[in-house]
Amino acid sequence: MAVDLNILIGGAAGQGVHAISLPLAKALVRHGCQVITRQDYQSRIRGGHLFNVIRVADRPLLSGREGVDLLVALNQETVTLHQGELAPDGVLIYDAAHVKEVPAGVRSLALSHDTLLPGTQAGEIAVNAGASGAVLGLLQVPVAGLTQLLADTFAGKGPEVVEWNEKAATRGQELGEAIPLAVTLAGITAPPEPRLLISGHEALALGALAGGLKFICGYPMTPWTSLFNAVSQRAAEWQVVVEQAEDEIAAINMAIGASYAGARALTGTSGGGFCLMTEGLGLAAMTETPLVIVVAMRPGPSTGLPTRTDQGDLNLVLYSGQGDFPRAVLAPGTPAQGYLLMAKALNLADRYQLPVLILTDQYFGDSQLTHTAPEFPEVAVERALSLETTTPYERYALTPDGVSPRRLPGMGPGLVVADSDEHTPDGHLTEDLSVRIQMQAKRQRKLEGLVQELGGLTFAGAEEAPLTLACWGSSLGPVHEAVTRLNQAGTPARMVHLSELWPFPREAVARALGSAQKLVLVEGNYTGQLNGLLRQETGLQAHHLIRRYDGLPFTPEYILKDLKGIA
Amino acid sequence: MAVDLNILIGGAAGQGVHAISLPLAKALVRHGCQVITRQDYQSRIRGGHLFNVIRVADRPLLSGREGVDLLVALNQETVTLHQGELAPDGVLIYDAAHVKEVPAGVRSLALSHDTLLPGTQAGEIAVNAGASGAVLGLLQVPVAGLTQLLADTFAGKGPEVVEWNEKAATRGQELGEAIPLAVTLAGITAPPEPRLLISGHEALALGALAGGLKFICGYPMTPWTSLFNAVSQRAAEWQVVVEQAEDEIAAINMAIGASYAGARALTGTSGGGFCLMTEGLGLAAMTETPLVIVVAMRPGPSTGLPTRTDQGDLNLVLYSGQGDFPRAVLAPGTPAQGYLLMAKALNLADRYQLPVLILTDQYFGDSQLTHTAPEFPEVAVERALSLETTTPYERYALTPDGVSPRRLPGMGPGLVVADSDEHTPDGHLTEDLSVRIQMQAKRQRKLEGLVQELGGLTFAGAEEAPLTLACWGSSLGPVHEAVTRLNQAGTPARMVHLSELWPFPREAVARALGSAQKLVLVEGNYTGQLNGLLRQETGLQAHHLIRRYDGLPFTPEYILKDLKGIA
Amino acid sequence: MLPLDLYDSIESAWCPGCGNFPMLKAFKEALAELEIRPEEIVVVSGIGQSSKFPHYLKCHTFNGIHGRTLPVATGFRLVNRDLKVVAVAGDGDCYGEGGNHLLAAFRRNPDITLVTHNNQVYGLTKGQASPTSDQGFKSLIQPQGVPYPPLHTLALAVAQDCSWVARGFAGEGEHLKNLYKEALTHKGFSFLEVLQPCVTFNKINTYKWYRQRVYRVAETPDYDPENELWAYQKAKEWGERIPLGVIYRKVRPALEEAYPRLEIKSLARPESTPPVSRLLADFY
Amino acid sequence: MLPLDLYDSIESAWCPGCGNFPMLKAFKEALAELEIRPEEIVVVSGIGQSSKFPHYLKCHTFNGIHGRTLPVATGFRLVNRDLKVVAVAGDGDCYGEGGNHLLAAFRRNPDITLVTHNNQVYGLTKGQASPTSDQGFKSLIQPQGVPYPPLHTLALAVAQDCSWVARGFAGEGEHLKNLYKEALTHKGFSFLEVLQPCVTFNKINTYKWYRQRVYRVAETPDYDPENELWAYQKAKEWGERIPLGVIYRKVRPALEEAYPRLEIKSLARPESTPPVSRLLADFY
Ligand SMILES: Cc1ncc(C[n+]2csc(CCOP(=O)(O)OP(=O)(O)O)c2C)c(N)n1
Ligand SMILES: Cc1ncc(C[n+]2csc(CCOP(=O)(O)OP(=O)(O)O)c2C)c(N)n1
Ligand code: SF4
Ligand code: SF4
Ligand SMILES: [Mg+2]
Ligand SMILES: [Mg+2]
Question: Ligand nearest D88 Cα, by number?
Answer without folding.
Answer: 2
